[in-house]
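Researcher: Please translate sequence to structure tokens.
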Amino acid sequence: MDPLLRDPRAWGLMLAAMLTIMSNATITPSLPGLQQIFADNPQAPMLTRLLITAPSLLVAIIAPFAGGLTDRLGRRKPLLIGMIVYAVAGTAGLYLDSLEAILASRLALGLGVAAVMTSQAALVGDYFHGPARGRLLGYQMAAVNLGGLVFVSLAGVLAATDARLPFAIYGLSALLLPPLAAVLPEPARFAGEGGAAAQADGAEPGWQLTVAIMSVAAGLTFVIFYAVPTQLPYLLQAEGLTDPRDVGFVMAAMMLAAAVMSIVSGWLRQWLGRIGTPVSGYLTMGAGFAGLALGHSLALSMVSTALIGAGLGLCMPTFITTALNVTPGHHRGLVSGLVTAAIFLGQFLSPLASQPLVAYLGYSGAFGVGAFAFLALAAALTVTLRRKHHI
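Model: Translation complete:
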């Protein structure tokens, strides 16, 4: 057993991470049902899709500022306050009576996600060092996807009864608040300033460029990837798979594969390297998108989303690990905020990019474009990182 898993702080950070990246996708099985509930709203087709990505807009705007505040004020308070906001805003869809009001609550959810994600990511850098940090980020991504597997599967069952019931899942944050408050202490403050201190604090020369490359790569990854939770329910409907539980099964396959791959990504990264790991992830996701473009069965859809999840499990821990590893400790909050902002800006922009493709090319055509986009990203990232020879 990895000694890291005997540290209660590691488990606390995994539970906190579980609330974040895939939080938007929890209500994916509800989308067709919500569209029917609010069928009298002419904007329902677009608004229901924006319910998935609306929190991302707030996260993208707020996360860099939230990260900077954690560098100045500490990590613990933003984390706990963010969990409270997450629980209150996330469950609001249970009782709000218009799509516009639910959309507003989803924006508020983004405030909570921004605080939680930037704080917990910075705490990873504060508590752990070296290979342990990379392994924990892999475990965190696994926790995110295992949580997503349970949440989306449960949401599929709940949505089959009432499209609003999946919003209740966000109340988990309130249950996690006391144990996380107990096991996540405030770390020691960073006192070093300036160039020499930054070098002693774990920075690599040119770390700003490395962080920028990782942030852009993470953002573009999610622009493409988030076509899955926003468009997949409608693709399955078009193929005759109308049961909300089918969406839950397909999403669960993706999250299970992402969880497994995230667990082993820390070890695979030692063999594949900083370039080979995300490039392998991109190629795997491209194959999964191609499968969704060609497939017309539940089984093939599950295999395809499993490939997508496995690819994401390779990419995302590498992006975050690399950014934190090269950054001076007293800027980890800011950098975690920048990477977080990039991820969630990609999520928000995803339906704005994919919906026109769906309109012109259909669902299969749109996912085919996504497959080619991942191939292009693999080539671009290889060229970019090879030019930055010290990465």
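Researcher: Any highlights?
Model: Confidence is low (pLDDT under 50) at residues 190-200.
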